[in-house]
Amino acid sequence: MAVVREPSDRSSGPEEQEGIGESDGFQRLWTPHRMAYIKGENKPTGPGEDDGCPFCEIPKGDDEDGLIIRRGAAVFAVLNLYPYNSGHLMVCPYRHVADYAELDDAEALELAQFTQRALAALRKASGAHGFNVGMNLGTVAGAGIAAHLHQHVVPRWGGDTNFMPVIGRTKVLPQLLRDTRALLAESWPQD
């Protein structure tokens, strides 16, 4: 949960800290949940599926706890724990593969179909104006978890890039992930 402090508030966090100095006039939006991402918590320890790969672990649990929106035969759709925008999801093969070229025909087909259905679900649920869809293949390309292929589907709206992410490097998300998961699962097109 984010906590906003007024400019006149001299605290540097949710708890009052005495003697810190004079106010600089800035408001603070505290997002302590982001620290897990910054510290790399729950990141794999290596490239193997037994090295703590979250995309291998998530499907072993239930959909709500794992934020899984829909399961297919070869792939599944799951919300991103650290979304760029509300509704940011990923389509992942169950099989632990790093590169798009490693997918077999059935996996590639279902990944494409799930991406189409994700677009439809996000349009229905949120009225997204557009999307960023893509994969970062390899660490140098920006993949946070390079050992397990995943395709991002990020909904976009006019004006969603404002001063918060540009200047403040902070995203304000209007809905809890569990609520977003439930809404998208309900909006997912019937197979």
From TrEMBL:
This is HIT domain-containing protein. Residues 1-13 have a biased composition (Basic and acidic residues). SUPFAM superfamilies: HIT-like (SSF54197). InterPro entries: AP-4-A_phosphorylase, FHIT, HIT-like, HIT-like_sf. Signal peptide: none annotated. PROSITE patterns: HIT_2. The keyword Mitochondrion does not apply. Residues 1-26 are annotated as: Disordered. Keywords: Nucleotide-binding. Residues 54-163 form the HIT domain. A motif (Histidine triad motif) lies at residues 148-152.
